[in-house]
Fold each of these.
Amino acid sequence: MRCKYGTEVGHFWVQINIQGARYGVALDAIPSQFCVGELEATIVEAFENEQPDVIIIEGQGALSHPAFSSSAFILRGSCANGVVLQHAPARQHRCDFKKMPMPSPASEIHLIETFSDTRVIGLTINHENMSDADVTDAISQYEQDLHIPVTDALKRSPDHLVEIVVAAFPYLKAKTLTAA
């Protein structure tokens, strides 16, 4: 798949939802001691077979979520150069954990960047129970507070998400410009 900059993008899923992608790992079905290695092997296979400029790895959960420990495997197994975090501002509590308040994006970013050798390059808004005005306000507030780009990948143009990645890795745009 090619993005608007002409950059070749490899894409695969981790977790249970691996439909629609050539490469995937159902981490929930793998014994924990093998998760990192299985993910790493799949990434290497995808890279060797496809030679993409970017590999996008989709997963679920968060490091601080008690029910999704596979997030740790995703970060360690992928050795990601960048992470786009998703946050649901209107949620008061973790889903299925009514006594656990939702963490702030700042605390999740700190945890991710402390746990792995990566950086959070952007934030997407999960707009459940939010109006368009609420989403716009949240985007502005989080950009100001966190100093990273923020978008809603479903309510805003998908180009914003691509721009987040290209802004974090400018060689992708430069590579495209020199190839043109």
Note: The chain has a mean pLDDT of 84.
Amino acid sequence: MRTSEPAIEQSRRFGVRPIPLLRPLGWLAAGWRDLRRAPWPGLVHGVAIALFGAVLTVLAREHFWLLAGAFSGFLLVAPLLATGLYAVSRALQRRQPATLRTALQAWKPNDGRLIVFGMLLAFAGTGWVMTSTSFILTFSPAPVRTPTDFLLHVVLSGESRLFQAWLLLGGVLAAPVFASSVVAMPMLLDRKVGVLVAVLTSWRVVMEHPLPLALWAALIMSLTLLGMATLLLGLIVVVPWLAHASWHAYRDLVDTSLWPELP
């Protein structure tokens, strides 16, 4: 392959396969099978993220406006956190050993592409936390320090429509990040392509399948919120489940047959 080609031309070498509207449900089913076949790597990831969320909750318990932004920003950086589990699903697909070591090896800092894209997602997540914090502090009619304050002054603030505006702002900022990352991170793990090529391919996937990908985004958000609502315990299962499912979304959507895979 001529990797000196412009990124858009390289991206066009990857076909986008047609899928039906409800295909994301199949990705969830495939992700669940992977989690059952290789549970330990996923559960270790899930426990680590749930513990991090618990620590964050304790540290920010008097600043719930910050906590709300941080937990919603988690959705933006989740593709980076799932990198090791993409490797596990790939190993299962190749009928290779899929262990915790498989997942940890994906984190070796020897691939600048993963580092660059991870930093971009981290910047996006940080930007949303700062934006969310500023928005709530500026427009909330009263200080928001606890979950009760957030519920009373933001969620149930009917006159100001603050919660609706906060959700709208989050959706506007999250949509391009989702479109840029929905298949980009597993693609970078799987193929020797540049970050821009992976991002452009991800955008092509979303543009060609807006309704199935909108359903996929809604499923990701709903399951993540459910995991958080169970005192974070649900994240132990939800995080690896969605990670494995995201690998299958990438493999289902992107035709990579014309580009050599990485070992």
Note: Residues 23-255 form one domain.
Amino acid sequence: MSEKKGKWRLTVRKDFAAAHQLRHYEGKCERMHGHNFMVEAQVEGDTLSQDTELLVDFKVLKNMLKEILGDMDHCHLNEHPAFAVHNPSSENIARHIYKGLEARLAGSGVDVKSVSVSEKPAQTATYFEE
């Protein structure tokens, strides 16, 4: 029987405010409206740093998320380059943030597990890759 290898999963949360319009929606959400989006990002790894014994410093992870959200905060998402082709839905926002974190963590031994975006507390879209 093989021995299990432990992993660590870290979670950070941050919110941002933005407006969007869902193209081709055929309902009220096709008109411009806004949300206070809540974002939750989870990363995972199996090796802690030798000096501090951290997977990744929470401060570093929060700053990465803050940087990605910074250019979406208080803007009209339909005008953001990431959503020129794709609808600025919660699903696509989650994917955009995931890809941004993935690029920033490349080569660190820490992988993005998932990114969730909520427009309201009762509804969440989660993006992850298998």
Note: The CA atoms of residues 75 and 89 lie 14 Å apart.
Amino acid sequence: MMILNILITGKPGIGKTTVLNRVKEAVEDLSHSVGGVTCLEIRENGRRVGFNIVDVSNDKKGMLAHVKCEGPHVGKYGVNLKDLNEIGVPAIENAVKSSDYIFIDEIAPMELHSKHFCSAVEAAMDSKKPVIAVIHKRSGHPFVSKIKARDDVSIFEVTHENRDFLDEEILEILENLTI
């Protein structure tokens, strides 16, 4: 089976999202359409207090999690299932329909609180479109284990040694796909 789904993993703060964004920018520079989601830190007074979720195709933004948010908790953050389901899920679903490449930042404990998100990720990975996603490294969640075990997945671990060129390795794989 051809590798269509690329998972980027690694320790917290190692540069997974940076690698993902470099790949996304290179794909866009080649005039391919991109869709999916990215998560951005919300900072107040120099401290991280939450995360926004952003549809990469139209920049529609919502709050994924915040220290002051009600909802299921992951560490000190409450997960905002409403924005995750109303912005994140449609962003992935629309990417399956209308984008050349699907980017997902990230498949991790916060996002896994939404069954709709998990279904959208699975549908994206089942599509004929390449999915490039950041995935939680040490999660024991059954969904993460299932995704990592797929035959059509290649997993790249970001390290201090490879983080400056890992995007080029991933792009080489993507170049061999016909979109």
Note: Helices lie at 16-29, 81-98, 115-126, 142-148, 166-175.
